Amino acid sequence: MELTKETLQKIDDVIPRYPDKRSAVLMVIHLIQDELGSISDESCEWIAEKLEIQPINVKELITFYPMLRETPWGKTHVRVCRTLPCALRGSYATCQKLEKKLGVKEGHVREDGEYSIEFMECLADCGEGPVVMVDEDTFENIDEKKAEQLAELMLKGKLENSADFVSYEKGLLSETPAKAKKPSAKSKK
Amino acid sequence: MTTNDLPKERRIILKHADDPNYSNRLSCYLREGGYEMLRKSLTMKPDEIGAEVLKSGVRGRGGAGFPAGMKWKFLDRKSGKPIYLICNADESEPGTFKDRQIMHKDPHQLIEGMMIAAYAIQAKQAFIYIRAEFFEGARILERAIAEAKEKGFCGDKILGSDYSCDLVVHRGAGAYICGEETGLIESLEGKRPNPRIKPPYFPAVLGLYQCPTIVNNVETLCNVKHIMEIGGDEFAKIGKPNNTGTRIWCVSGQVKKPGYYEFECGALTLGEMIFDVCGGLLPGRSLKAVIPGGSSAKILRADERFVGKHKDGTDFDWGIEDVPLDFDGPMAAGSMSGSGGIIVMDDTVDIVEAMANVNAFYAHESCGQCTPCREGCLWMKKITKRMCDGEAREEDPDMLLSIANQIEGRTICAFGEAAAWPTQSFITKFRDEFANKSNPATKKGKNSLQLI
Amino acid sequence: MISKAINDQVTINLDGKDVEVPNGINLVDAVALHGKEIPHYCYHPQLSVAGNCRMCLIEMGTPMRDRGTGEAILEEDGSPKIGWVPKPVIGCGTNVTPGMHVKTESEVVTGCREGIMEFLLVNHPLDCPICDQAGECRLQEFATDYGRGYSRYKERKNVKPKRTRLGPRVTLDDERCILCSRCIRFSQEVANDDVLGFVDRGSFSTLTCFPGKELANNYSLNTVDICPVGALTSTDFRFKMRVWFLKESLSICPESSAGCNTIVSSREGQIHRITPRRNDLVNDSWMTDSGRVLYKQLESGDRLKFPLVDQQKSSLEDALNATVASLRGKKIGIVGSCKSSLEEQFLLNRLAKEVKAKKYLRGHFGEDDGILLSSDRTPNLRGALISGFASSYPKDHLNLLVQALKKNQLETLLVVGEDLIDSNLEAELLSGVQVIYLGTHENSTSRLAQVNIPTLACFEKTGSFVNRSFFLQGFQQAVPGPAGVLPDINILGRLINELGNGELSSDINSIWKMMARATSSPLKGLSFSDFKKEGIQLDSSNWSDFPFVEKKALHFEPFADSESD
Predict the structure, then answer these.
(1) Are residues C195 and A60, on separate chains, in Cβ contact within 8 Å?
(2) Which residue from C52, C158, C198 is facing B370, i.e. has the nearest CB?
(3) Domain that holds residue C82
(4) Looking at the predicted structure, is the pLDDT value of residue B86 above 50?
């Protein structure tokens, strides 16, 4: 199991932040999963040795949390919220449309490994539902029609053109004070 | 209702959330007078801060509504063990999205509130447990903490005082049960997030690493700063007695203008919120039901009447539109305000499908530690799924009610109640819809939205 | 046997009746002291409290106190007002406090139990006809006692891995598992081998080991004992025998000086398994895996079944006569055994006195695992000391015997259960000596002995051992030995009578009358029935500066480390 120097350095930086080594396990797993895509048994053993715990203690966590994976998702991973508030605004239709356009069923990875869809539980943005996340970006108000447009952009690789419905988060990390994309709820139709 | 009668928001926490000239950088926060309260608090005694918070009567905004000042009083300060402060930023209750706004748009408010709280309880270290789906949020918080540390607002020897407290951002990994305080503590310790039995593991006595710990919600900790700004007594005047301060209500579902709105407690009713502030339902629809406090709260039927006596002896007789939006109002109506997530359902909703959706959520998120929740939640989900697939049986509604009654009150943590209450309330209030599902003549409802 | 200081008794109200229980003990144990049962799965008195099965839900209330003054609030009739907890509480998570009120029989409690029982059976497979646990299964017992009596579940059950190999001695059936986590807590807390865990979550949680690892430590079978259902089963015992046919005899494990209390289960003269017996002062509820297989020795091919004279099969009378002839008037050496029972060692010592024999004894030692396998691999070394057979701590060799043989000081050797050749004694040294061997199995010594008299193994006779804490514990006969084979005390008693004109009976109680006579012995005044069920602590001060090899372990402090108190 090969990790880059940066990842190893990040792991070494994060462990001393906690009074007890074992507490760092989730953060270490995230760092390794960000690089390798999933946590294999070999990774479990590496993490266990690093944090002085047993491999079963790591495996218990990998299989418990939905975001931690033993096999990787697709290169582009799409998350659609299925819980009640988003469902009330049509997220089931959204998911089915995305399934059709991207050619993969929810919970699976497309055969060429490019796309995967996960029909997830509440993503905590219910006011702008249905909510879709593509990798780390959040997209709001993706009804069936917008889902089609979103999928088109994804397939063309031009996701950054989705200014219409990308979440306000984009731009919050930039240097200059970002203009709030749209003041929420005040002027919506 | 004319627009003049529109209840006015009072934005204390979300003052700068939608200000186009405000960013989440430290410079903006300082420009608006940030960290002055931290400076002032450090000159006071920790107990004095605790007294202000207690006087303010601020109740937890994570769902339980337990007075924060009282929780701080339960802290075991005599054990000699280090004390920890944890901010519960694992916002996963369906219908709630207020903490997202605070953390993405005004993170320094949270950091200042946390540092004041940490100083008040003399915490050795503070953690922010943020859900992993907030990728951007975690990065924003890390950057904000780095900014704050640089200027001495957190970390070593805060603002030149003797008090040091390190602030660590810890990411979860997608489990709702990590929002339960002892589940969160277990997750922070690196174990499976199985909630602990209380007694004896009350976090204020035996929390993180078996040391005294305080777990508070994001909004609650932000309120600490504002309490210090105007004083506990003044804060207690906002809102209503026993329901002090403002609350951020998150409206979602089938309304024209869903979103987050901050009002004083009791400043408006449910009807005003749905029909005035949120612009009412979509055209041609009528209100069927509202869940006032996140999916764990009991459902309120649109044509129900809520009759009873308040604690002070006065009578009340409400329709759904009259339920006041504070802590005690929805409670009096037989539900709870929970995390403030109001989910609105109109007459196109098939209630059985809505419940199947909610049951599937709880079955998926159950940690599996204790028997009733583990087996009961999955059983309920199997029944409602089967009902929605067209194979409902006559005994199903009674069976569901019986299972829910067997879960409630018998579990280790409140997840059992959270899973049981929706089932109990849906079936009790909409029994006819459930009964109709097993009747071949009525089981296929009108073309409703697919919810499961 | 719940061992807690019984001096601090308090009164609690149990289903309307006031009863006395020790203060601070677990409520499940307290209620059991008064003949009532709080059903439970995940609670175990010797493991940490998990509180996850929720079967022990009961109603509980405590006397109310005024918030401000702390004064007790009283009812009109002067009795304390009881604040009942609004929800049922788990009994295993509650410790007794004075004045506590407990309801184990009420509508709420009945409803709880029926509900939890139903939930446990919802995904449980219908395996009773093929499950080893049947007959000692807590699901069966509590379903009968507290369950609703019929099933309302009409959906599909979850499917999980079945009959997987969890380790070399343990088989796991995940579908039967009720996720009580006893096995995980045991592995972490007692066996110090954190190798088990739950994967997945919710109703799909599954017990497993990390791929590539196994539950292989020397205490793995204890998880089978504590598993309340048939999820963890012993591979050795699998499908062998239904437990309701088994006769249970109380015994002591002869593997080491730990002296684990055991139950030997047999049917029609054949032992089918050995399981630990609870003793809070010695072994809690545990024993080693290696101790459990010792019963297999009884059927091994090298078992001595017939007396032999000059390696020819003979009758017992002839063998005994030959023995007496070899002993009378000769220079005799007696090699005793630390594996013999206390009574046998006492008689051997008496015989040695009668015939003025020199006594030799060796110990068998190994690695101490700090739990229940002590470094002294014999069950009764201290018995040899107490009976007077040995006056110094035995070493792991027989050099003194070797020297005596080299100097031709001995004419006859009576060997009880030791293999001299194995103790580095060369066979040539025995060439001029008459060897009489008393033992259970063939070995190099028995093959060149002039007389071989078979004896019974510890599972086939009654007796007592003294363990590393100087605890005297008795064991019962579980199965009869091979036909015609007598216990050692019969043989030794006969020899003593013949050689010393005595009138010894081989009844164990009479032997004990003799043993309990000596004033300076720690056995003074005891009789065999005193400790048949529970052991007795003996006074060890006569041997306080002996170099005992045992290290600190479960319920054991080496004398050197502990201050005399």
Answers:
(1) no
(2) C52
(3) 9-105
(4) yes
